[in-house]
Amino acid sequence: MTVRLDASKVPAELVRLTSRLGDPARDLVVLAEGNTSTLVGTDQLAVKASGARMDRAVAADFVLVDLDEAAAVLADPGATQAELTRLLAVESGPYEGRRASIETLLHVAAATTGLASWVAHTHPTAIVGLVSTLEGPALWEGPLFPDEAVVVGTPAWVGYEEPGLALGRAVAGAIRDRLELTGVPPRCVLLGNHGLVALGSSSEEVEAITVMAVKAARTRALALSVGTPAWLDAGLGADLAARGDEVERRLRLTGGRP
Ligand SMILES: [Zn+2]
Predict the structure, then answer these.
(1) Tens of pLDDT along 148-187?
(2) 249 CA to middle of ligand 1, Å?
(3) If you write DSSP's letter for every residue of 158-218 in order, what string do you get?
(4) 107: CA distance to ligand 1 center in Å?
(5) What is the model's pTM?
(6) How far is the CA of 242 from the centre of ligand 1 (A)?
(7) Distance in Å, CA 162 to ligand 1 centroid
(8) Domains: count for the chain
(9) What is the domain-level CATH number for residue 96?
(10) Percentage of the chain surpassing pLDDT 70?
């Protein structure tokens, strides 16, 4: 797998998005948690390097990964974590040894199976708290308020998997299952005991999905603290999200796909 570090090829908006999401005041990540990516051309993915902090991100904190080669590793049932770790490193030159994030394959799954050109993966405290409960999946049985249905939709769910190959395969499987069920990839994947992945077609869209998913998590915690959440019917939520005026509003809000 070809991994290169070429800061001149890293979109400035990816750096800006990363530092916005990494702002400690937003409590979406701390230290070197989380990672972002976007397609560069049709065949490369710019993804955050391992160990880099999102709030201090600069272009040299991203590496370029060959998308087809990474997708082949993800699809190879014989691939091992040790092999993946080796493949994620820049092989030669001044940046030899610099490594793409260990979570690169979840970005590859989102970009290939999930058809996302922008991906943001964060560990918001508000979400990690809820997805670290036994009730986690049931807490998302339906949306709680209209904007959640419109911006986030119904998240796909992945139970805890070790970051790396296992998590990448699980995310790809969850996206594939959703595609088979509805014909449309999810906008958000919740990761048990871990965080979330926002899938979109612009930086604004993945940021909007992330902040609305955090609001949806906080709303659940608040609702649970005083009573039983009154879920909206998942079908009603989907109908609302597909309504013409809401599609238009989402497009304006996120600058992304309808
Ligand atoms: Zn993570």
Answers:
(1) 999 999 999 999 999 999 999 999 999 999 999 999 999 9
(2) 30
(3) E----TTHHHHHHHHHHHHHHHHHHSS--SEEEETTTEEEEEESSHHHHHHHHHHHHHHHH
(4) 11
(5) 0.93
(6) 30
(7) 10
(8) 1
(9) 3.40.225.10
(10) 98
